[in-house]
Amino acid sequence: MHFCRSKSDGHSDKPEDNYGNFDSDEEEKGYSPTPFLKGGKHFDIQAYASNYHRSTKILRLIFIADRFGNANERRRSMQLEALRIAYDIAKKGKDVNVFIKIVRKIDGRLGPNYDMDENWCNSVIEGRRVMSEMLQRCAKNCEKSYTERTICAEDARNVFNSIAVFYEDHGALTRAYAFYKKSVHFCRSDKNYSELLRRLIVVVIELGQFEASAEIAEKGMQYPNLNPITMETLRCALGLARFKSHCYKDAAHQLLGVSKELGNRFSKVMAAHDIATFGALCALATFDPIEFKNFI
């Protein structure tokens, strides 16, 4: 799997046609984050969720709802509060599959205002269908125009990047990944390459492809003119990949090495407190006392 940026400004390399079937069903997200929850009486679900970007915020809220269950009235109340917030956020987005999942979990317990909204679902699905047909034509015309030298690399990059964002917003992550990957071919500036790497690594992680995310991160970190925030994003992604592969000591080194300047800029995957918590726990589990003292 190669994601190296092309150094050439020429038009000799025709990008492969790998953007897939525009009309297939939505893909299921492969990454389900597991937050550390404080189960005290004053756990503020809204405040906790505010640390994350919309798609990850919904996944975290669903996770919370699943863990609280129906053991008692308080837990049921917190479960429904998490689902209520998730419903409101999902209705502002375009991922119908996630919305339906939330509605099924609510199961009518929040009243008619939080039932299935078929009109909204049909509107989003129809809008996506129409837009997908247009984007398919646009992608093919873009490749043809680039080959014929009637558009420059930057124009082509903008087209494929916009298409990738569209599919990512709709939860079609495999197609979003294909278009982000295609955009690499047209990157001609360090700024655009850095931005693309940040977008690409998030989609790969959401697909649950941690080996691929580690490969992208390692290769990206070798690029000489990488934006500092992108470098820290890739370091964090590499730490998460090491954690998922049970390489906890390496995960600790990567996560604890992330600069505080990253802040919550990686909130589509992890908030700042997640990075610190996972890094510290991995260090406690794998470092000897002297190493822990020196590193921390």
Give the oligomeric state.
single chain
Helicity range of the residues?
55-70%
| Broad CATH class of the largest domain | Mainly Alpha
Largest sheet: number of strands, sense, barrel closure: none
Shape: flat
Task: Give the topology.
Elements lengths: L44 H5 L4 H15 L4 H19 L4 H11 L11 H30 L5 H17 L3 H12 L5 H17 L3 H11 L7 H17 L3 H9 L15 H15 L2 H7 L1
Helix pairs in contact: 2-3, 3-4, 5-6, 6-7, 7-8, 8-9, 8-10, 9-10, 10-11, 11-12
InterPro entries: Rpn7/CSN1 (IPR019585), Rpn7_N (IPR045135), TPR-like_helical_dom_sf (IPR011990)
Pfam families: RPN7
Keywords: Cytoplasm, Nucleus, Signalosome
Account of the 3D structure:
By secondary structure, the chain is an all-alpha fold. It folds into three domains: 45-116, no CATH class; 124-187, no CATH class; 189-296, Alpha Horseshoe (Serine Threonine Protein Phosphatase 5, Tetratricopeptide repeat). The protein has helices at 45-49, 54-68, 73-91, 96-106, 118-147, 153-169, 173-184, 190-206, 210-220, 228-244, 248-256, 272-286, 289-295. The two termini are 35 Å apart. The model is unreliable at 6-28 and 32-36 (pLDDT under 50).
